[in-house]
Amino acid sequence: MASNEEASASAATPEPAPAPAPELAAVPKPPSLPPFKVLLLKEPAKPCKYATTLAPRNGTVSYCPVLAFERTPDAAQRVVDAILKAQPGDASPGQLGVVVTSPRAAEVIADALRLLETTLSVDERANVPSWLRSFPVGEETASRLGTFASKSMGKAGSAKDLLPEILAWVGEAKASRRVLFVSGNLRRDTIPHGLQEAGISMEEIVVYRTIPDPSPALPEEWTRLQEATINDSPSVPRFAVFFSPSGVTCIAGASSAQSLASDVRLVAIGKTSAASLESDGAALLAHAAQPQVMTCLAPSPSGLLEVIQAEIMRHTSGE
């Protein structure tokens, strides 16, 4: 045993001071861009991920709702009924893949799942994740699915990109996997035709109608024929962003369309909107600051920022 003297000496010896924590390197802020303006041809959202992504980079964001959306009667209940009909059991084992290509349809699905919770027993609700899957197009669509987003089988940027994912999933167990397409009345035929060609049946529920605004009210600054200048600096680049083919059709037919196009660069958030701009929006392109459609590689705020940044760099370098 240690003597009293040894114990006292040991107690008097101070513990070594802990080493100071290493300083964390400051996260560099992204470089600011020259001032630019962006018109989002959609309804404003709160919060708007596009605004929060572009504003820190010196961007000013405006909105112009060009479309209205009207739910069909009992939309959420009809989705619930379709899900319950596909619920696994002795007569129908398997899984259901829910395809959704727009944020409006995703909101209906989220409402349907909340409604479903009041229909199923506790045990049945616990079993839902094992047999229900979602196939959304784009980050915004996926984000509006609520908790159902966690069961996503992918987040493709377009219906064309999503189709192979659906075919691969069904092909793994074709006899026991079914497809439910929750859509709007103006949806494209890409997914239905692709499934039909592959011999895969699907059920479709149209849950909303798109109603174009015959005369969208563009913000006043966007109706000017000349680009704005700031303290005699070079013209401020302006971008008009299209989010759907129906939005392209609406703007192309508006009386203010030429003044919109005359001082902006036209951006398509995805491939289908780009194709529509090149066809239905040909007159817009003829008056635009750039005659080519700029297309986001990903239909997301970061994808839009990449397009804008590349164009501003080209613009400021005088190419």
From TrEMBL:
Residues 50-293 form the Tetrapyrrole biosynthesis uroporphyrinogen III synthase domain. One of its GO terms (cellular component) is cytosol. This is Uroporphyrinogen-III synthase. The lineage of its organism: Eukaryota, Sar, Stramenopiles, Bigyra, Labyrinthulomycetes. Residues 1-14 have a biased composition (Low complexity). Residues 1-28 are annotated as: Disordered. GO terms for molecular function: uroporphyrinogen-III synthase activity. It comes from Hondaea fermentalgiana. GO terms for biological process: protoporphyrinogen IX biosynthetic process; uroporphyrinogen III biosynthetic process.
